[in-house]
Write a structure and sequence with these properties.
61 residues, mainly alpha, 1 helix, single chain, 0% strand
């Protein structure tokens, strides 16, 4: 009986480690995606400002 209890505790510990690894990987993926989305929106904003500047300069001609 003692052996079964030890196995359950050990399996529970392994399940906890696996769950923590999955959580860590998911967190890393979310952070990486957030960085990419921020870069995308920054580039889009820069392109918009560049286009506005071009239109402004063409109007000054």
């Amino acid at each position: 009986m003692h052996c079964r209890r030890f196995r359950r505790q050990r399996q529970g510990g392994a399940a906890l480690i696996v769950a923590l690894l999955v959580f860590a990987l998911a967190t890393a993926l979310i952070v990486a995606l957030e960085v990419e989305f921020n870069r995308f929106y920054q580039r889009a904003g820069n392109l918009l400002l560049m286009e506005q500047a071009n239109v402004y300069l063409r109007g000054a001609e």
